[in-house]
Amino acid sequence: MAKHVVAAIAELAPGGVKVVTVNGREIGLFNLGGDYFALLNRCPHAGAALCDGQVMGLALSDEPGTYRLDRPGEMIRCPWHGWEYDIRTGQSWCDPRKVRVPRFDVARETGAEIVKGPYIAETFPVMIEHDYLVVDM
């Protein structure tokens, strides 16, 4: 599987979401307190742009009329029909046995760790002469 540089760490604040395109597919990047996750930006239920939905927590209830919010910022709700997905796993909370958003592994790497491509662009010396940039070919 090929690695793709998709963002600098500084571009994705904790709790943030950033949509990028990789090989023609929109991917939503999420920063959950320094842990990074990526989901396909498409709801498997009806095809909505999932990252246009609300990032929220998981509402739990022990009895009618009471609820509590657990795992704040770890769920995303589809903007069309409200289906909820776990950002960490892509698992649906509406139909957990059958529906899951495709997820992708995310690695944090420094620039020196990324493998250089096989091509090198030709370079030319640039000088400044009398307030003009001059390229020496």
Q: How would you summarize this macromolecular structure in one to three sentences?
A:
This protein is mainly beta.
Brief descriptors of the model:
137 residues; mainly beta; Rieske Iron-sulfur Protein; 4-stranded antiparallel sheet; 3-stranded antiparallel sheet; 9 strands; 0% helix; elongated
Summarize the structure in words.
The model has no long low-confidence stretch (mean pLDDT 79). The strands form 3 sheets. The protein has a 4-stranded antiparallel β-sheet, with no helix packed on it. The protein has a 3-stranded antiparallel β-sheet with strand order 4-5-6, with no helix packed on it. The chain has a two-stranded antiparallel sheet with strand order 8-9. The chain has no helices and 9 strands. By secondary structure, the chain is mainly β. The two termini are 40 Å apart. It is elongated. The chain has a single domain, classed as 3-layer Sandwich (Rieske Iron-sulfur Protein). The chain has strands spanning 17-22, 25-32, 35-40, 54-63, 66-77, 84-86, 103-104, 126-129, 132-135.
